[in-house]
Amino acid sequence: MLGGRSPRYNTDLIRLITVGQVEVVMKAKKSPPVSLPEYRLIWSVIHSVRLAIGEDSGRACLFYNTIAACILERTFRIPARPLMGVALVRVHDPSASVLTFADRNAASGGLVSSSDAFHCWVETEGYVLDFTAPTYREELLLSGQSLPIPRKMFQREKSTAAASPEEITREGDFMVLPNPELTNLMIQRATKSLAIGDLAEVCLSWLKRPPKKTPAMFHMQDDRGERFEMQLASLRLEGAW
């Protein structure tokens, strides 16, 4: 993809988000990092590329949020990094449904994360964002639940996060527990993937920061040198969590 160029994205990942090894300096930002239309645009471009290549690794959160963090950094000039760990989000009050990305510690009964049970999200100064939020409905379907989960943006102040699962009592309540070791491990795996780097570059080339207009169609070249056309996904978001 992209003519086989060595992806710059991998270097950016190592420089910006390797937790515990590189200090990330973020400027204070009182207002939310992105608007609802900007969030939708970032999601739409990443989602469109994922659909075009048929990427279905089961790690959608890693794909969406590592690339989203790179877009925030390089296109929007907002310091951002993806983190991995335990995550919980209450998405449906009538059924008291809480999306839970974690395992139970056999000894303590507490929530823990591992390479087989984790979520990836984006953090900026003072905010937590999740670019898989528009498809929380599909996440529930994977666990056998079919619920009318609204398609919303997830962009919340860190200060509003619950301190324990017991505090998650209404829609939009959330908790995140970053795992630095797991984050480093998953980022190192991602940076070894030329495909991820190339796909990030495709997203960066396609997306134009408003007021510039992002094209509705975009061409990409696969690893066999064949060009194909991608169409920008359309999605209506019903506000924010």
Report on the architecture of this protein:
α3 (60-74) packs across α6. The chain is built from six helices and ten strands; from the N terminus they run αααββββββαββααββ. The strands form three sheets. Strands 1, 2, 5, 6, 7 and 8 form a six-stranded antiparallel sheet that branches. The model is unreliable at 1-29 (pLDDT under 50). The protein is α+β, with helices and mostly antiparallel strands. The radius of gyration is 18 Å and the shape is globular. The chain has helices spanning 8-17, 36-53, 60-74, 136-142, 180-191, 194-206; strands spanning 81-92, 97-101, 103-104, 111-112, 119-124, 127-130, 154-157, 174-178, 217-221, 227-231. The longest helix is centred in the N-terminal third of the chain and has 18 residues, at 36-53.
